[in-house]
Amino acid sequence: MKKSKINFSTTHMIMISFLIAILIGSILLSLPISSADGKPVPYIDALFTATTSICVTGLVTMPTFSTWSVFGQIIMLIMIQMGGLGIITILSGILISFKRRFGLKDRILVQDAFNLNSLSGIVRFLKKVLIGTFIVEGIGALLYMTVFVPEYGWRGIWISVFNSISAFCNAGIDIMSENSLCPYALNPMVNFTTSLMVILGGIGYVVWWDVMNNIRRKKLRFCSGLSLHSKIALSATAILLVVGTVGFFIFEYNNPLTIGNLSLFDKIQVSFFQSMTTRTAGFASVPQQDLTNTSAVFALFLMFIGGSPVGTAGGVKTVTMAVLIFSTLAAIRNRDDLSLFKRRISKQAISKAVAVVTVSFMIMFISTLLLSAVTDASLIDIVYETASATATVGLTRDLTPSLNIWGKIIIIATMYLGRVGPISLLIAFNMKKTRNNIIKDPIENINVG
User: Would 447 be classed as within a structural domain?
Assistant: First the structure.
C-alpha cells in the first residue's frame, strides 16, 4: 500500500519555518541560562520575546537589557538576524557556503521568499544580499562604537553590534535601557547611524542593486535608468520621511513632554527620528505615550505603510500603498489604466496591493477588537499596539509590559500574522495559475460605493 506523501507549498514552508524558529527560540529563552538572574522567565514571556525577535517587531513585555543574560541576548540577536533576512535566506546561504547542491526547488523557494519575478541569477542575488547585509551592519556597528565604547567600555562593542543588526533588520530592540533610545534623543551620531541602518534595511535589496548598477553605468542622472519599482520605492520613502518630519514637527512643536522645550535643530532632529522610526524601526527617542493624540493618529498611518518590498521592514509597504492610492485616483478619473513614471502598472499588481492592504487591515481590526475585550486601556493605546504588531513596528504607548496573558497571546498571534500574512499573499499570487475554463460565468454589473 502506497504511503501518501504530503507536499508543502512554498507558502506553507515559509509559515512553518517561522513557527518552528519561534518555538525553538522560545524554548531556549525559557532556560535559566538565558535569564540575567539565573531564574527561568515565564514561558509566555519567552514565547513573546521569541516572536517579537523572529518577526522583527520590537515589542517586549520585559526589559531586554536587564531580563536576559548575554546568552539570551545572543539567542535574540540570532533570531533578529534570521527574521530580518528571512529564515529561508539564512538556510539557503548555509547550503551555498557548504557548497551543497542548490536545486530548482530551493531557487523557487528563495524567489517566492523575496517576491522576485525571475529565477535567473537567484544564487548570485542571494550572495549579494548576505554579503551586503553583513558589510552594512559592520559599518553601522563601527559608527555606534564611537558613542557606546567611550560610554560603556568593552561592553559598548557588544551593544554596538546588537544595535546595528537590530536597526538594519528594523527590529527596534536594544540592550541599553528600559526606554529605548530616549537617552540619546539629542545625539546626532546615534540618530544618524540608527536612521541610516533602518532606511538601508527598509528600502529593499532590489533597490540597492538597481541604484548601484545605475551609478556604475551613468555617473549623472542615474535616476533615469532606474526600474519602475526603484523609482516608486525611493520616491515614496523620501516623501513619507519629509511629510512625517514636518507633521511631527508641527504637531509636537509646543508639547513640553516631547520637543516643546528643545532648540530648533533638536526639534527637527527628533521629528525626523520619529518619522523614520514609525516606518517599522521601533526605536523610540521620545516616549510614545507623551505624543499628542494628533501625532499618535498620524503615526498609525506611517506605521501601517512601513518600508519597501524585498527588505527587512514590515507594513503593507511603500510600493503597495503607492499603487493603491494612484489606482484609486485613476478610478475616480474613470481611467482604465494606471501609469506611474510613464509606465503602466499591471492589473495583477493592483490586485496584490488591494489584497495585502485588506488582509493587513483585517488583522489589525480583529486584533484591536480582541485586545479591547481583554484590556482596560484607552482605545488609542490599543490601536497603537495592534498597528505596531501588525506592521511589525515595535512602538508602544507603554501598553506592552502591562498586558495580561490573553493580551500577550493576541499580540503574539498578531505579530506572527503581520509578518507572514503579506508574504504568503504575495506568494499565492505568484503561484502557477490553473488553466482558465473555456466556459466562464456571465458578467453582471453591480452597484459599488
Answer: no
Read off the pLDDT of residues 205-247 as tens digits, 9 standing for 90 and up: 888 888 888 877 765 455 667 888 888 899 999 999 999 999 9
pTM confidence score: 0.87
With respect to residue 386, please indicate whether it lies within any of the assigned structural domains: yes
How far from 31 is each of 69, 177, 389, CA to CA, in Å? Answer: 11, 23, 26
Q: What is the pLDDT of residue 282?
A: 86
* Residue 439 placed within a domain: no
Range of the domain at 17: 10-428
Are the CB atoms for 363 and 421 separated by under 8 Å? yes
> Is 310 in contact with 204 (CB distance < 8 Å)?
yes
Residue 437 lies in a domain: no
Asked if 287 and 396 count as a contact pair (C-beta separation under 8 A), the reply is no
- Give 299's pLDDT tier (boundaries 50, 70, 90): very high
Cα 170 vs. chain centroid, distance in angstroms? 6
pLDDT at 123: 73
For 340, phi then psi, to 5°, come to -135, 135
Domain count, the chain: 1
Contacts of residue 352, Cβ cutoff 8 Å, sequence gap at least 6: 320, 323, 425, 426, 429
Name the DSSP class of 260. Answer: T
Q: What pLDDT, on a 0 to 100 scale, did the predictor assign at position 120?
A: 64
CA dihedral 110, 114, 118, 121 (to 10 degrees): -60
How far apart CA 158 and CA 318 sit, in angstroms, is: 33
CA-CA distance, 149 to 152, in Å (whole number)? Answer: 5
pLDDT digits over 31-45, tens only?
Answer: 999 999 989 999 999
Residue type, 112: D
